[in-house]
Amino acid sequence: MVLDMVGDKPVYIQIAEWLENEILGGDIKENEKVYSQYQLAEMFNINPATAARGINILAEQGILYKKRGLGMFLAANAMEKIQHKRRNYTLKKLVEKVVVEARRLGIDEEELLGIMRQAGKELDE
Amino acid sequence: MDVISCQGLTKNFGRIKAVSDLSFTIGQNVITGLIGPNGAGKTTLLKIIAGFTRPSSGKVTVFSENPFNSLKVSANMIFVDEHMKFPSSLSLAQIMSAAPAFYKNWDMGLAKELFAYFSLNPGQRHHHLSKGTKSTFNMIIGLASRCPLTIFDEPTAGMDAGVRKDFYRALLRDYLQKPRSMIFSSHLLNEAEDILEDILLLQAGQKRLHLPVTDLKEFAVALRGKKEVISELTAGQEIYHQKNIGKEHSYAVIRRDAADGLLKKSAAAGIEILPVAAEDLCVYLTTRNRGGIDHVFDRNQSF
What we know:
The structure holds two protein chains of two kinds. By secondary structure, chain A is mainly α. Chain A has two domains: 11-76, Arc Repressor Mutant, subunit A, CATH 1.10.10; 79-124. Helix content of chain A is 62%, strand content 6%. Chain A has a two-stranded antiparallel sheet. In chain A, β1 (64-67) and β2 (71-74) form a beta hairpin. Chain B folds into two domains: 2-216, P-loop containing nucleotide triphosphate hydrolases (Rossmann fold); 220-299, Alpha-Beta Plaits. Chain B is 33% helix and 29% strand. Chain B is built from twelve helices and 13 strands. Chain B has helices spanning 42-50, 71-76, 92-98, 108-117, 131-144, 161-177, 213-216, 227-233, 256-259, 262-268, 278-285, 294-299; strands at 2-13, 16-27, 31-35, 57-62, 77-80, 149-153, 181-186, 198-203, 206-212, 220-226, 239-245, 249-255, 272-275. At the A-B interface, α2 and α3 of A face α6 of B.
């Protein structure tokens, strides 16, 4: 993944989201060690303090936990926590934006659902 | 532990105050970007920290010592800029082989690999190098010396885009291998932004901001929308930058914490709230006229 350095989203939030995606994708297992701030700094070409801030967001939310001197590990139920958060916050916000844009264009609910089904089909292909 | 500490630092050149009542501290193993427009006092400040010049008043300590005439500071610090002088009788290869005598942490392996990577010519003399190649060589010396305090003054001057990118990458990777305190100065944040931890922004010899880069990016927001609504919302607040968009709309940059209470109100009033790029903010904060260059032209327009 390449970070979006000019966009609206702070880099440390992008780091947190990237880690979440790795977790959702099953690449990191419960009670396994996650990337260190130094590994992330090297991977994304950012200052390790910025990477640490991304990691800390997930620690504050109980998705990661710290083992003193060993680093950060994936908490039990981390996957559920992320899914819950994304469903109730991230997805909701995205849908809001879609609905606002659809209204601006005078697209009714039926048509919007059609567009979404179509997008799903294209992704499946 | 603080590596650098300045209190009320002032440096006068005749009647001109190059650095004026500057106070800040820099902690260990932090990469700090010293940012400011031309004439902000960046080089003067760095030279005081390096112990090359004495402040007119105020106090500076580096590794808990006054850097001027300090052997401890000289031995643990390197100052890299485009005026770096090396004996003209030595070739680049000879300069590199002499370096370990001056810098006890010198990493010859790293120096040689960087030298080969950038295709420098070992037989060449330093004073015959082009501006960009000189900067590249100086950068290699700066990194390979691995000094606990590494100072780069405008290190990328004359480097092409590719070398600049490599430089920042090399700096970060070397820092990850051997964390140390680094400061580098630049007019602009540009490509350097992401590898910095802190930023120290100077304007006219004074400190404008000193904070983590991640905080800088969230320091301000821009409001965009109907002119009257914007001026109502921003009344009584410090506006860092303002410009008109067409006849009826305007764009104003204010502090985010001042804006927090306004966010809901703004959304209801049809005002857009936009993030402000760190680099743009630095320019706004260090420009005397908050209308920017447009102001000059707008004033001279007869219509």
